[in-house]
Please model this.
Amino acid sequence: MSMSVSSGSGPKSDINITPLVDVLLVLLIIFMVITPILQKGFATQVPQKAEVTTNAPSTAIVLQIEAGGGMAINKQPVTMQDLGEKLGAIYATRADKILFVDADDKTPYETVVKALDIARGPGHVETIGFVLN
Model:
């Protein structure tokens, strides 16, 4: 910082902005180096469309959820209140506790989450899969 004193106006000072520019350039370089490192994503695998064979009986348990809130377990109607009890009875004797959920596209998200919570809790389901149409 330089100061000059003139005869009648008092001291004058000029701000040196060189250190400020140096700091800003260093920060710019740091952010340019860090930005590509921070780009992350999720590794996902989209399931392939499987061919359905009709000669083998299916042992899968499928929970169908309709847009209006109606539910069915393997096409047997069930209410939200009875869902945990029915799933618990089904999975009490099964070694594999896998449930497939086939929800209509217009089904409210809240209804699907409530059904999944019941399935994981009183329904004793360990693995949940979604049916893609």
Summary: The chain has a mean pLDDT of 82. Strands lie at 3-6, 10-13, 61-65, 71-73, 76-78, 98-103, 127-130. The helical segments are 18-38, 83-91, 109-120. The chain has two domains: 13-38, 61-130.
